[in-house]
Design a protein that fits this description.
The complex is a heterodimer of chains A (344) and B (469).
Chain A (H helix, E strand, L loop, with lengths): L1 H45 L4 H10 L2 H12 L4 H11 L3 H8 L6 H14 L5 H8 L4 H8 L8 H10 L5 H11 L3 H12 L7 H11 L5 H5 L7 H10 L6 H10 L5 H14 L5 H7 L5 H12 L3 H11 L4 H11 L3 H8 L1
Helix pairs in contact in A: 1-2, 1-3, 3-6, 5-6, 6-8, 7-8, 7-9, 9-11, 10-12, 11-12, 12-14, 14-16, 15-16, 16-18, 17-18, 18-19, 18-20, 19-20
Chain B lengths: L1 H43 L2 H7 L7 E7 L6 H9 L6 E8 L5 H9 L1 E4 L12 E7 L5 E6 L4 H11 L4 E5 L4 E2 L3 H5 L1 H4 L6 E8 L4 E3 L2 E4 L6 H24 L9 E5 H6 L10 H15 L8 E9 L5 H21 L10 H16 L1 H17 L5 H28 L7 H13 L4 H18 L17
Parallel strand pairs in B: 1-2, 1-6, 2-5, 8-12
Antiparallel strand pairs in B: 3-4, 4-5, 6-11, 7-12, 8-11, 9-10
Chain lengths: 344, 469
């Protein structure tokens, strides 16, 4: 038993050392090839060499590294030129293999495929990309949705939009950024969804609509201002700040008196974004709200009203209520950058 | 005589079986950590994730920095924290009634001005002397309070925090610039995260510039060197393995991200606890299970914070004794969770492992040494049995330490020099001869302290990073 254990320990040590040696050798072999591809890509962009050189170079790299190269160069090459490369890649053996992997049972193969298609997809890849956007592995669908930056396809946009409400907030925000590029299709579909008042996805869709700040969606959002779901009202109050309109102001006046402090806080923030002079008394009153977060939001909003808001805060700073005094003093003393960070 | 011999033989066999079971469980953790580390490295290397991690989509974070008598390092530490690669974060530094000029240093370095307190005291703490913001660093808030200990400082910082995620960082810990980005990865993966831990590595002998580790080295001296292997073992397979079993009980206090609403719901850190991070995590598990909230507390290996480990036996012994005392206290305080099916895998797997494995191991190991050596001397234990005991207790331990080095080598490879790799292998092999027995002794002393109800924190003497090559 001691001998077996000794052999095992010895072989582990040898394994570690061999692994290091093998990796160093591999890096020494592959690195020059990667540099050669980078050089040929540079020349191709400058128009001094044909595309064939790039394709040959990419084919000589390990697939993962070839995809890495494409991802890192995709942002640097002008659109039309990059599309030519994407079309040319369609015929490459390794690219065909990567495309096939979009249906693989292994998530890392699908991830590889999604990463490749996010930068090198052609219109015929739409069905593959829809499947990848609906993938169960988060890394795969996050990679696939980046294809929306390069491909305009309604089915792809709708697949991402359908998935968006079911995603956690962070990933949702990323999807929203990607979907902003396919605005016409998104606005049309979102308009329909926002009219379904019993849709459980409504809070998330309202949040997304707020991010888009698309005037065509204002009416749909305002109509939800008195929704029974608190989360919807919070998102509506937040979104309305992006729509400076008298109907928004009316809805925000009501939201400022909502039973939920989160709605009141978002309403104060949005009123600060719209800066309608008639809402100044409302924000002054909000400085005395029972919840400190609403008081802070109201004070920050007042700072956006210029001299009038500042005067209101200066008055509050010497007022009778200690909580109001404190919040006014804090906000009046904040440097411009801190104010922007607080108000975000 | 034959009765004594039979008792000795039976006890020795029982101890052998205990070690076999314990080490086999470690081996299970190791096996489970392999797919975990593979998946984590795969996603960590993904460029799209990097892009997502640098977008506006990331959740805002408050970094809590308790500081007590940190005059020598506070400016550099806070400056390093303020330059982390993350879009939306704030830093709350708490001067916990320092007796040196920590507060003065902060005031001078960051151009602080006093502001009124507008937030409520959600978690009770010792009284606040003053609250400051910085004119030069808009992300920075400083709290000056009466001394109340680290847990109390963290609670005060939680009260003052604005954001839904909080991360506790020791003032003397060096966080890698992209560590926060990496730490938020589980949130991007859509998991229901209550807390997440990153890796803590040993900074001794590393080159540090402007509060950043620029060249990772393995110390040449035995004591810190062996601790490098220990940390690798604890983080790379211990905690990764527990990810798969769903029962991570330790998220390092030096580098762990928590959802504030849950921490506030359990009343924050316990000021009376000896090891506040273990205590907090166990209470979080208990609260979340009680309230049937779906949650995960994963450990992810690639976000890295560097810390200085003790280089003298005296300081190390105090640290290890305190850690073990904290473990005993936590196991005793939360004994109702032990083998309680209501707490799922935490109650049925993690708590028994920590109670019967980690906590009792030093007692049983010492018993094993005494009985084996005594039995061998009096001819009650034969040589082959004594060797078997050594193989199971030490040989297996050595195997696991070497595996930790293997995991490091196939995943993150922070130590680029071949010499460092050789040192790691050497320390992994030497750990079981002398060092292990010392740690057993220190941990055994923790039982005595608990018995005598001694509650001493034990001061950590640090060399500081400026002196490193």
């Amino acid at each position: 038993m001691a001998v077996v254990q000794g052999v095992l320990l010895g072989s582990l040590v040898v394994l570690v050392i061999l692994n290091r040696w093998f990796r160093l050798r591999r890096a020494a072999r592959v690195h020059p090839r990667r540099l050669a591809v980078d050089a040929s890509l540079r020349r191709w962009i400058a128009g001094t060499t044909p595309l064939t050189g790039v394709l040959v170079g990419l084919a000589r790299l390990p697939v993962t590294l070839a995809i890495d190269t494409l991802v890192s160069w995709s942002a640097r090459v002008p659109g039309e030129r990059w599309r030519r490369l994407a079309v040319a890649l369609e015929q490459q053996w390794w690219a065909r293999l990567v495309r096939t992997n979009s249906g693989s049972a292994r998530w890392w193969k699908r991830l590889e495929s999604a990463r490749f298609l996010s930068v090198a997809a052609v219109p015929s890849d739409a069905a593959r990309l829809v499947r990848l956007i609906n993938d169960t592995h988060p890394a795969v669908h996050i990679a696939a949705v980046a294809a929306l930056e390069r491909i305009e396809n309604t089915s792809l946009t709708l697949a991402a939009l359908e998935r968006l409400p079911r995603l956690p907030p962070t990933v949702q925000a990323y999807y929203a950024a990607m979907l902003q590029r396919s605005r016409p299709a998104v606005v049309q579909h979102l308009g329909k969804r926002l009219r379904r008042v019993d849709d459980p996805a409504l809070p998330r869709l309202t949040e997304f609509a707020g991010r888009l700040a698309e005037p065509a969606l204002r009416e749909c959002i305002t109509a939800l201002a008195e929704h029974s779901d608190r989360e919807v009202r919070i998102q509506v109050a937040r979104a309305m700040g992006s729509f400076p309109h008298r109907e928004s102001v009316t809805a925000l006046r009501a939201a400022a008196a909502d039973a939920s402090w989160e709605v009141r806080a978002q309403a104060a923030r949005s009123l600060g974004m719209i800066t309608d002079a008639s809402t100044l008394p409302l924000l002054r009153a909000a400085l005395r709200d029972e919840m400190w977060w609403v008081r802070l939001r109201a004070a920050l909003a007042l700072m956006r009203f210029g001299a009038a808001g500042r005067n209101a805060l200066l008055e509050a700073e010497v007022g009778a209520d200690p909580a109001t005094r404190n919040v006014a003093k804090l906000v009046l003393g904040l440097p411009a950058q801190a104010l922007a960070e607080f108000a975000a | 005589m034959s009765t004594v011999a039979s008792i000795v033989a039976t006890t020795d066999l029982a101890i052998l079986v205990y070690f076999l079971a314990l080490n086999s469980f470690y081996a299970v953790l190791l096996v489970l950590s392999i797919p975990e580390i593979w998946e984590q490295t795969r996603v960590a290397e993904d460029d799209d994730f990097q892009r997502l991690m640098q977008s506006d989509a990331l959740p805002p974070i408050t970094i809590l920095v308790p500081a007590y008598n940190e005059s020598a390092t506070i400016e550099a530490s806070v400056t390093a924290i303020l330059t982390l690669e993350y879009r939306n974060y704030e830093v709350v530094v708490v001067n916990d009634g320092s007796r040196d000029d920590t507060m003065e240093k902060l005031r001078h370095a960051f151009d602080l001005y006093e502001i009124p307190r507008i937030y409520p005291e959600t978690i009770p703490t010792t009284s606040l002397r003053a609250l400051y913001r910085s004119r030069s660093r808009s992300r920075l808030t400083v709290l000056d309070k009466e001394n109340g200990g680290k847990a109390d400082s963290l609670n005060a910082a939680i009260n003052a925090s604005r954001f839904p995620l909080v991360i506790a960082v020791d003032a003397d810990t060096l966080i890698e610039p992209d560590a926060l980005l990496r730490l938020t990865r589980p949130f991007l993966l859509g998991r229901e995260i209550a807390a997440v831990g990153g890796t803590v590595r040993v900074a001794n002998n590393c080159t540090v510039q402007d509060g950043r580790v620029t060249d990772a080295r393995v110390p040449g001296r035995l004591l810190p060197g062996v601790q490098v292997v220990e940390y690798l073992r604890a983080f790379l397979f211990g905690r990764l393995g527990w990810n798969r079993l769903g029962g991570n009980l330790i998220i390092s206090g030096a580098f762990g991200l928590f959802r504030k609403q849950y921490v506030a719901a359990i009343g924050g850190y316990h000021t009376s606890s000896i090891v506040e991070d273990l205590d907090l995590v166990v209470r979080l598990h208990r609260y979340l299970r009680h309230n049937k909230i779906r949650y995960e507390m994963p450990f992810i290996p690639d976000p890295v914070a560097w810390t200085e480990v003790p280089e003298s036996m005296k300081v190390l012994s105090r640290q290890r004794e305190r850690w073990h005392r904290g473990l005993i206290a936590a196991m005793w305080t939360y004994k109702s969770m032990l083998l309680n099916p209501r707490y799922g895998r935490v109650g049925m797997l993690a708590m028994p492992f920590y109670a019967f494995g980690e906590m009792l191991a030093p007692l049983i190991e010492v018993l094993g040494y005494v009985i084996t050596i005594g039995g061998f001397a009096f001819g009650m234990v034969n040589l082959s049995f004594a060797l078997l005991f050594v193989l199971v207790a030490w040989g297996y331990g050595m195997l696991l330490s070497l595996w930790a080095v293997v995991l490091e080598e196939v995943s993150f490879r922070r130590y680029r020099r071949f010499g460092d790799l050789v040192r790691l292998l050497l320390f992994a092999s030497l750990e079981n001869f002398g060092y292990r027995q010392c740690t057993v002794w220190w941990r055994l002393k923790a039982f005595a302290s608990v018995w005598k109800r001694t509650h001493v924190w034990g001061e950590m003497t640090r060399k500081g990073f400026a002196a490193t090559p």
